[in-house]
Design goal:
The chain is an all-alpha fold. It contains seven helices and no strands.
Length: 172
């Protein structure tokens, strides 16, 4: 069991680094691309015709991969008045119920977004400017949702072990 837990911890750290590097690289690349496009359009009158489309699709990827990172840190929008009024044990129960609802939501969203992605792939749709297969843009939704699902499961495991998200982040 110890080797398996070490592997899971390694996999968690690896995915965390991969996600954060993807997000940072995508933000930097998109910003530079849009800046160069503005310069090319207004100074040289030669816009990069596919820049806005690529930036739009990268934004979708950033949102769904970023949602996994926000889930990891417990940063999604939440109403905190109820947990403040509850005892520690009731608060743990509430947090577990919320995590289970989020897990269920993630499963449903992953399923339907995967079905939509395969429908788009089967229709051989391509993007107008880059002629990129549209299923690649749609892939961000099921992939990001599965990553969020994994993070919610991690939160349940941490809570059942008596740890909090803050304690997990301090370990990193």
């Amino acid at each position: 069991m110890g080797a398996f837990m070490r592997f899971l911890r390694w996999l968690d750290n690896f995915s965390r680094i991969l996600e954060r590097n993807f997000l940072a690289g995508t933000i930097i690349f998109s910003s530079l691309l849009l800046f160069v496009n503005v310069v090319m359009r207004y100074i040289f009158l030669l816009p990069i015709y596919w820049a806005e489309e690529l930036s739009r699709y990268l934004m979708v990827w950033m949102i769904f991969i970023g949602a996994s990172q926000v889930t990891l840190q417990g940063g999604h929008i939440a109403v905190d008045i109820v947990p403040r009024l509850l005892s520690k044990r009731a608060n743990l129960t509430l947090a577990l119920v919320i995590n289970l609802v989020c897990i269920l939501f993630s499963i449903v969203l992953a399923y339907f977004s995967y079905k939509q992605m395969t429908r788009v792939k089967g229709a051989h749709q391509i993007s107008p400017a880059m002629e990129l297969p549209m299923w690649i843009a749609y892939l961000a939704i099921p992939l990001g949702t599965v990553l969020m699902l994994i993070r919610y499961i991690q939160q349940v495991i941490l809570r059942l072990r008596g740890k909090t998200i803050e304690m997990q982040e301090a370990r990193d």
